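Lay summary

Proteins are chains of building blocks that fold into shapes. Our project writes down both the chain and a compact code for its shape. Here are two examples, one after the other.
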Amino acid sequence: MSRKLRLCLCTCVFVCFASPNLLAQTPSQRTQVLISHPVGMKVHWFRLDAPAKPDYSAKPSQAPTRINLNQGATYRLKLADIAGNPGLDLYPILEVLPANPRMQDFLAHNAVEIRLTNEDVRRIRENIPLTKVIYKPADGSIGVEQVSFENPKPGHNPVQAAKKLGEPLLVLRFGVIEQPVSTRPIELSVDATEAPRRLLHARMKIPVSAGPLTLFYPKWIQGEHSPNGPINDLSGLKLSADGKPVAWRRDDLDLYAFHCTIPAGVESLDVSLDYLGAGKDSGGGFGSSASMTPQLAVVNWYMLLLYPKGHAVRDLHVNANITLPKGWKLGTALPVESEKDGKTTFKTASLEMLADSPVLCGKYFLEVPLGPAKGPPHYLCLACDSAAGLAITPELKAQYERLVLEAGALFGTRHYRSYRFLVAMSEHINHFAVEHHECSDNRMPERFLIDDNYRKTWAAWVLPHEFVHSWNGKYRRPEGLVLPDYQQPMRTKLLWVYEGLTQYLGFLLTARSGLYTPEGARENYALVADWAKHQRGRTWRSLEDTTVTAPHLYFARGDWASRRRGVDFYDEGALLWLDVDTLIREKSGGKKSLDDFCQSFFAGKDGKPSVKAYTMKDLVKALNEVIPNDWQAFLDRRLGTTEGEGPLDGITRGGWKLVYRDKPGDLYKARETDDKALNLAASIGLLVNEDGKISDVIQSSPADKAGIGPGMKVLGINDRRFTSERMREALAASAKGQAKLRLLVENQDYFRTFTLPYAEGDRYPHLERVERQPDLLGEIFRGRVSLGQK
């Protein structure tokens, strides 16, 4: 890599070179920046994170010029009158990095020079993204040097690269030549009055200036870890300016990009579009799946907007409003400016925060305060297809109130101004949940609150899981997921932390809050351990590989899942982090736990949301600060292995072991009822729906060896018509001398009878205490907050 102002033509990520939370700074720490070349160039600037509305300096400086800028702050520059480039204005981002004490001494007596070369300008004119890092050389050379990186490539961090040469002080990044960031906000109006028939309308007014413009439809959606922005459901797109149509053209490679040219004298572009909502059985993934019924809707803003290319979404500001069907109410994390005649207007927010704040609305709507007495407020925001479904018992409300308290005790800080559990309840929407910084989008069955069976299914731990994400995933986020916009590909390698640790802590908080009984918490882990034991795909595919391929695995078919592996970093991640927690407790003699890790790793300031990136190195360092151990080697083994039956060491170290009995536990029975299916993985190796349709076959099981496959349908069992009850009865009888099962199976247009040699009876997973071993699981699940605390 060359020095002394020579360009080093390397590749880099055009984004993650500096986290806004890299180091806390005091207001007095400033860096004097000398913009020296091209001579005569005019320089305007404003601070992007200033408390007041941003605006360029009224009077530009002229190069060479010196500007005193705050360390830890980010500035937008406007560079005009560039010699030899008439009419070219550039709008780079300048990040002034925090300096260590040694560098503070240097900066007290020296300016940091930025020199824009003719070669730099040529590349920018050719629409080649360019990042320049100005650094103090580590070899003690006098002054500063700069290194340039061009053509962004996922996986490369220019600041980290520059650290090999010295101490980075400034980062200057140029995108392709695009429209400047306007100090005027984007206007967005959403008409949801036709939500009952799954149709939404949006109108936008985007500040622009004359020249070429590219607009993006969001593609990579935070929290969904996939390039699944619902571009196919964008309809009716029209652009206009001053009442005249503006032609647009879709990019023939990037289908999420729309090109147009803004006429001279135009300052605002009008955009109109519609969003076509999906029905429950018509496909769509996560947020783009069925989200509207005649009585309720979940509205994600990112589905209803376009935004200008070349700008970080945190730098774009939006004034948004939404109009609801008559009589409907809403809940959202966005601060409200006003409400009148069914129209709610929100306070100005960054596009990043807007897209992270969905709106839940409905005819039958209830907001339930959860406290606590001190700190930011929390709410259950409930919308249901029926008024009866809004009933919440005092006991269940108290458990959610305790969830809020237990999370505060676990993490110690709250990186949000308020928090809302948005809960949509209907049989006509897809059931899942997505995390956001100040809320969560939870989509549940209609009887979620009033049917105790849901206290024993996946629904019991979903709200705790998404709540944990406010800390793990939204505040602390893997470096590969900290991106400037919604078009850059995500690097998902650390999802075993983002989702796996969240799964573990979600299980933990479900138990500590009382949403699970101690018996329920243990049985939940028995079910997870049983699942891991039968994931045969781990014999060829590592856990880490499931994270890397997650953007595709989220949408993999359900058949052959045990051979393929899916997004296993959730439940296997929960086992891995239980292993970590129990190992810390064992090595420290019970004095330390993963609670201590959470207190330090997620530490920070209460209040306004922010993002702090982390790497694998940061994670290992934090674990070693809790208890010294070769955590790198430990994690490498767990992430890279393709052997064994799942990481069950944490359960054993926790004082329990996986066993099988002939009677199911309460959670097992509830989940089979909810799934409308039989899980026979532990016996003959089948997962079969209540109608006999086989969804998966466990490799090396009796069913697999007999030649049965997914997609076939069981019609009969031991010469009688198949029912779930008869299948269970036949399995139970196999342990009493009937050593074979006869299955009549339909395979497309053909029928065949399979005989399975099996004599082990019906088998259900349970945890059983290990004698003379401390009950660490009991300690992990024990609540930390007294019942009288508010």
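And here is the second example, written the same way.
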Amino acid sequence: MMQRLKFAAMTALVVLTPNVIPAQGTETYEQPPISYSATQPRDALAQVQTRLAAGKLKLTGSGKEIVQSLLRELHIPVESQLLGFSKTSFQRQRIRPDHPRALYFSDTCYVGWLPSGLVEVTTIDPQLGPIFYSFDPNAGTPKFVRDNECLSCHGGNFVRGIPGVFVRSVFTDAAGEPLLRFGSEVVDFRTPFTNRWAGWYVTGKHGTALHRGNVLAQDKKGELVVDLKRGANVGAPRSHTPLQEPAKLARKWVESDADYGIDWAPLAAAQVPLSRYTPDQVDILLDFGKLVPHTGAIRSFAKGWPQPQAAKRRLRPIFEPFVNGTLVSDRMPQLRYPSRLERRAQAVGAAFQCEFDFSAYYDQIELAACVRDAFVIRTKGRDGRDALFRLTRLPMGVCFAVGVAQVVTWTITLPIASFASTCIDNVRIVADNATDFLFAVRTFLERCDAVNVTINDRETWALDDAGILQRGHNDRVGPFLFLGEEYNGETIRNSEKNVTNLTQALALFQEPSTVITRRRFAAIVGLIVYMSHTVNIGLWRFFSLLRAYSRLASPSSVEHGDVLWDAPIELYPTVLADLTQAVGLIAPNAPVALRPLLPPGRSNDDYDTIVLVDASAAGWAAFVRLRTGTFELRCGWHEEMLHSAHSEPYAARDALQWARTQQPLGHAAVVTDHQALATGQRRWHSAYAGFSSAFHLNDFFAELYGADDLGSTRRDVFFVDGVRNVADGPSRSVGVRESLSVRPANIVFPDVSSFVHPFASREVREVWQV
């Protein structure tokens, strides 16, 4: 029988779940007569350690149970709990708004704890003052270690150069990073109410006065953006995370048919289409528990067939349910992923990485008995008679399957979201240091076990810490495969498997006897788009091929408004030539460097070349800022160009061409009042755009990007209102057939910060949407 995902356990998983500058030189408190680090403490923890050594006290169980025992031993009330979500602890990598650090305190003791992390203890010694310890509750017998790393903050300027404890108020962003450029405050009795608790969760009613707790701030171009009202007068903490709602929704789709759209009477067996499974294949599906015999009413059906998997030399059972056409789609789990460039940037400079692949993932997600009669199939038995069965597991072909499976994955990876990258049944873990990597890997494996999800080659992860770190190091060095991309240290390229698939697909298209369908053509074009992105080949190179695809993917039946994907089509020789050219560009598969993300610049100093351009029916004008100075360009068209959709892209293209003759473009920006140029550009965080099916726009993008390395150079298009475009007046005074003229420009060049970049910000996603 197949493994079953424990959905109830998955729901439980959802619910449960600053850089320090070292002190320099010898501090005065380390010198006699104090000798802080050399003196044996006589604090409350010394008594605890004596009882541990004598066997009179045992700290055992889970991390939570150990912390509870320690709080009782130190006489710290659980009700003293505080939750801080700013990364202002030495465990900063684990702290996030959805994974805060808990603090408990009394007059003489403080305990800090992060689930799956270390426990921090501070006690007040009668002679030495605060003593700082840490221990690992997952290490078997807890061993308290004096941790003087804490003194870099707790022994420095914040506490007047002597060891001390303090509370800090600092604005914090959605990732938990403190926005230190906007200052921070050490809170005491003198601190105004309005300045307190930034980076902390705060409950209680306080009228109209506002504090800084409970809210996330943003740094937008150097300006602090925060709404303090959102954090005011907050009641008791909620017992769930933002992921609980998507998790409940995912569970609903496999436990209720309320949104299946079934509004018809029960069907007759003859209305169920025949699935193409042999009796032997049906027996295998029965043995695995994927099918059970069906009797009774038929509410809806699925059509199935065995799909060959050439790479694995086996057949995969495919089922397409009829309810795909009636589902209430806007109630499905919504999927939002990081872009592929964002996934790559996560690995830049990392020390460790690894990949996990769930085994037969959809088959691990069980359909509730009450919905199975919506997934009935009909086959022929050995006696030639009809046989009815119903599915017991989530069929990959139903529209909500991907959403359900992805939410399960997000739930499992919630505590390690800052280290994980996922796509349905694939999970990559990346970390900069050994502590974080071990935490992420072990947490992931534990949570998979908790919900009964199986992983391919799970037994190979029965390793000690050294083995896990060695495996993570080897995968980081490479070759390492994730989502069809091969990582080799600090470079990336397409997997050899994908290159082989692409070249074989092209050979099939070149074979005269091949029956070409829209589905086959869409498949090879999709592979070209995906693989070209991996090796930084811009889509603007495939203009005519993508134009052909857009036409072939249009509805083929006016009557039904659908696309006849499996109907034979005939490709023009020019389209086949475009396919051959595209594969020829990708097949060499030259590796490209992993790069950090490169957002649009915030000032003119971020660019080597800036073109501010405008066009009219008669010609165009531009102000071009180069390293050698600023120039005004004017040029007339050969004949009037009445449509701005043609003239504006050509004007920007021609101005860039002139700039290239003067210097390498380097970091380049174009400023235009033609919005299509700005909205069609390559997104800096995904690189999927920078293409248009309009020839004039695509011609501009080809000139803007060219063959330059887009991983290391900015190429941005800013938008400016026409009335603010300083090139507008000169462009209107140009005459038709006027030759190109260039002269130094005596203008104050506007700063790019005064213009609009439509993709200046990355998409906002929940922290768990990795």
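What can we say about the second shape? The longest strand covers residues 302-309.
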